[in-house]
Amino acid sequence: MHALPAPYLLFLGDVTEPGFAKTAFGLRDWAGDRCIGEHALPNASVTTGLERLTPAEAAARGARAMVIGVANQGGVIPPGWMPELLAAIEAGLDLVAGMHRRLGEIDALREAAARHGVRLHDLRVPPADLPIATGRKRSGRRLLTVGTDCALGKKYTALAIARGLAARGVDAMFRASGQTGIMIAGQGIAIDAVIADFAAGAAELLSPDAAPEHLDVIEGQGSLFHPAYAAVSLALLHGSQPDAFVVCHQPGRQGILGTPGYPVPPIEAVIEQTVLVGRLTNPAIRCVGISLNTGGMTEQEAARVIADTGAQLGLPAADPIRGGEAFERLLDACQG
User: What InterPro entries does the entry give (predicted)?
Assistant: First the structure.
């Protein structure tokens, strides 16, 4: 469990690629009542649309923490961010981050936090004494979101499915496997911070034995087709042992994010590969639907893409954020 001090000021650093600000967008969209504004360096071109505030202004309005809303490649904290992070500490704000580079490992931040009586919260810290995976079949049901790429909607889809099924009276729970999901849910395990030998075991721990009708909706990570992140995707797939999975895709995205020369695979290839490798720990694994990120499309364009994708693949397809009848049909498939 992670009890984080709210409300938050979202820090966007110097981000120019929206996909690398997914933590800020996730908090805005799923924990908006905890977000008071945003702060960024002058050369940042990405915005959440929240009011721009300095750390001192945010603190004066009641903010209690500044959250690093960036999920950049390698989870680094660049030197250019340091003045803003120190300014937040000096304004009396805790710092919250889910980076691979931990706040508590940076001497200047640790010393400043001690002087000003604030805390540093590192969320990409796996639990101690994680087990290796057993491959043992667990009770309960599990659904995993997988993707054609990273940063295109696996978390949003899992949250929307869990919330939608819970509204129907289904015993469903969102299981966070990444920094943003943990910030939203208040609990979870950042799978990509776990030593490789223990990653599948961490995924087993994330969705333990449950009642027969209980459904864990597990947030996916990376993509089996991503040259950098496929390893964490595979560990999560094997450890989750999903009975069902939903493929997440952004129509129009041509290349793997941040990796020139690697094209986004077709949805059919993701289904085939996920079933092929997922059968190791759950021979009955199956794809139950497609989640499409149609942000930026008109209603008519989105409806056409959703209908065409569903007809082409013979599976329910929907944009969970748009909702509607298409999403209800996707929920039907997930519930069954």
Answer: DgcN-like (IPR011669), DgcN-like_C (IPR035086), DgcN-like_N (IPR035402), P-loop_NTPase (IPR027417)
In a domain, 129, yes or no: no
Can you state the angle between helices 230-240 and 267-278, rounded to 10 degrees?
Answer: 50
Which residue range is the domain that position 107 belongs to? 8-122
Are the C-beta atoms of 130 and 198 separated by less than 8 Å?
Answer: yes
- pLDDT exceeds 70 at position 1: no
Same domain, 258 and 310: yes
Same domain, 179 and 294: yes
Arithmetic mean of pLDDT over the chain? 96
Domain match, 39 and 177 both: no
pLDDT digits (tens, 9 = 90+) for 164-187: 999 999 999 999 999 999 999 999
Could you tell me if 169 and 314 lie in one domain?
Answer: yes
SS3 240: helix
| Rounded-to-integer distance, Cα 331 and Cα 157, Å | 11
Question: Of 122, 153, 172, which residue constitutes the final position of a domain?
Answer: 122
Cross-strand pairs, 79: none
Q: Are 199 and 191 in contact (CB under 8 A)?
A: yes
Inside any domain, residue 215: yes
pLDDT in tens, 54-96: 999 999 999 999 999 998 888 899 999 999 999 999 999 999 9
